[in-house]
Amino acid sequence: MKADLALLTVKQVIIHEVPRRRDDSAVVLSEIESPMDEEIAQLLKERIIATAGDRSKAFEIEWDPATTSPVPGLVTKYLTLPDPNLIVDQSQQMARHLAMTQPTISPGGLLIVIHAAIEDSPAVIILKLEKEEGARIVPRMASGKRTVDIRHYKDLILTPKTKVFKIALFTPLEDGTEAIACDNQR
Fold first, then answer.
1. What are the pLDDT tens digits along the chain (186 aa)?
2. What's the predicted TM-score (pTM) here?
3. Nearest-CA neighbor of 113 among 156, 168, 58, 54?
4. What is the 3-class SS of 62-79, one letter each residue?
5. DSSP code of residue 26
6. Closest to 125 (Cα-Cα) out of 92, 170, 94
7. Which sign does the torsion angle of CA 62, 66, 70, 73 carry?
8. Which of 23, 37, 99, 148 is the most buried (most CB within 10 A)?
9. How far apart are CA 185 and CA 163, in angstroms?
């Protein structure tokens, strides 16, 4: 890896829910970017570095010239002329394509497309990860007595145990595009 991921800045995040079955009408598409504070941006950065930055997990990739996927063209277009207003539409196209082409044995999950920068260079990061379930305790007072509520959540992400199925990072370099991936489903 040539790019220094320590210099990564997460700028925009778009999240789509992609079902297990091949049905692009079942994809839940975001229409705008997800709101994100510094804490969430840092969690995403840490997860990206832990996967794409790990030389034992990540590997260089190249576009297949015979591919019918729209992803290479969308990523190349974005890296050439980064436009934060276009990334939502481009990510929707990626989510629809994934929904129609992933094997039916692949689990459903979330497709996260991130508009980022590494120093002054634009970057596009694409993740497919699972949603988790879990419970959370919430201390409160009831009738003047202390208690703890237990609340169930079915839509957790970015926990230490969240499975990152796939991640790809693309950024332009002087001699072309750096493209690295990590595929935990291989």
1. 577 898 999 999 999 999 877 766 788 999 999 999 999 999 999 989 988 888 888 899 888 989 999 999 999 888 988 787 888 999 999 999 998 888 878 878 889 999 999 988 999 999 988 777 788 888 999 999 999 999 887 776 776 666 677 889 999 877 778 889 888 655
2. 0.84
3. 168
4. CCCCCCCCCHHHHHHHHH
5. G
6. 170
7. positive
8. 99
9. 10
List of residues 6+ apart from 74 with CB closer than 8 A: 90, 93, 94
> Within 10 Å of residue 130's Cβ, how many Cβ atoms?
15
Asked if 19 and 29 touch (Cβ cutoff 8 Å), the reply is no
Neighbours of 122 (CB within 10 A): 19
Query: From CA 176, how far away is CA 144, in angstroms rounded?
Result: 65
The residue assigned the tokens 């991640």 is 167
Angle between helices 87-101 and 71-80 (to 10 degrees): 160
